[in-house]
Amino acid sequence: MNPSLRRRTLLGGILAGSAAVAVGSTAVQAAPGKAHPGPGFWHRPTQLGTQDRVFLERGLMHAAWVRSGREDGWYPNAGLWNGSGFTTPQFYKEVLAVSASKKLEYSDEVMRGLDQPTWAIARAPFGDHINPDAQQYPGTGFPDPTEEWMTEKMQANVQNLFTVCFGDEEPYSADRVDFFAKAYAALRERYPWILVHNNQALNQYSDAQLSAYTRTAKPDLLTWDWYVWQKNQFHLGGRPNALFAHLERYRRIALAGHDGTGASPITFGQYTTGFRLQPERPADDTANLTRFKRRLHLSESQLNLVPFTTWAAGGKWLSLFRWELTDDYTDPVSGNTWETDGLFLTDGAQNPYPAYHHYARINHNMRSISPYLTRLRSQSIGRVAGQDATGKALSALAGIAPWAPGTDAGSGLVGASVKNLGAANGGQPGDIFIGTFRQIPGLSDGENRAVLPDRTNASAFMLVNAMAYALDDYTDPFSQGGSGAELRQRLTVEVAPASVAGRTNAILYRVDPATGGLVEVALVNDGGKLTFAVDLDGGAGELFIWG
Question: Is the pTM of this model over 0.90?
């Protein structure tokens, strides 16, 4: 991949210098003498694998990278954090050499007063990339994967540690994958409820390499980052093809699982945007100075699209990169000044920008669908094809076929037509993204907690308006344009209750985005076809469940 597109290169700071176990009917215990999560979820008998039971207990995750307390830099206070709806602070260090603590650390100060107790770690074990360094790590050139690297502060709240990402954005190599395999196994032995993974940037791993990494290292989830509007705010029909291409490949390889057979899938997820982007490089900028101009903000529909398509495809992990309040940065070597990539969710006085409120609404929607999606597994994905502003059909998406009744016959979803309710995209309809689900195999009545209307024959689908447009002036966070309402589309959906897997007289419910409650959908008999209509904001989606 082009090194200039890697995330840390995009930020000024870089210029400074065991399988998911199917438990059976017995309980899995923490290692002797180790803390374990309460209240008791980890030792309840279960048929679920590790990552399924952890997400079932913790809920869908939308973390955010934050600093480790005041000595390390600015962090959002409890009022800002709780109002945003993010679930999990993910502690990181940008540049250890200039960090006050000189190490990756947990912070009681950041966690104090938060509504949810979970936390996460980026760039374990020591706050940097996993690169061979013969001087720092004699012998193998890598850190010792078996050592206990957690600090005393981390261990004091290890029962609420959700995920640990070892390293970040490293290129593929066999010895690095071997390190991951040993590090994952060592942490899993000590703290089996913590989900472990590594994160890749766009195209760092080929499909073959990603499959080999999954098979050898045995992560609990696959994650990646790609900021689809970086340098390009406009896509035909409001649909960024790269987003769907990478969503499809990570979903496909995650669902294949560690052994590639699909018998024991793992989950997946990606990063959301929390920093100001750089504009497209003009042809006459031969020195590439444009990359220092970090001015671009995202619209509501753009912010919607990544989370909702991830959830519709079956992903359960998201993390915001990153929540900062930074000043401009001057590289001491080149003398170039990077305009701040912070000031995205708030201004310098910590007053919320529109993006803050958009994410708060997105995260509220996430909490509404979380009890359902954490009990469901992705079955299929597809699309209702849209058009560009001239009326020309949008190009096909590899691995994501146009929806047909046979795509997932047991979903009860036959097809859909779409109408653009506004003037965006020349008034032409954009794509609709579809994901279907079944219950996670082995889910017990106690684990269902009466959430799914039919635990043994659960069938669901999620519809997402895949059209997103930029702000009219994307250097102004308060600019008009690209709102969910401006990109709103109406779907007329045809369903066949008699075809729902395992059911004869199925009733369709909509998950209310505001309350999370189930609302029965009134079906219309349209010439022998059963249909309903739903209006979806740009980039947003809704979940429907049969009962």
Answer: yes
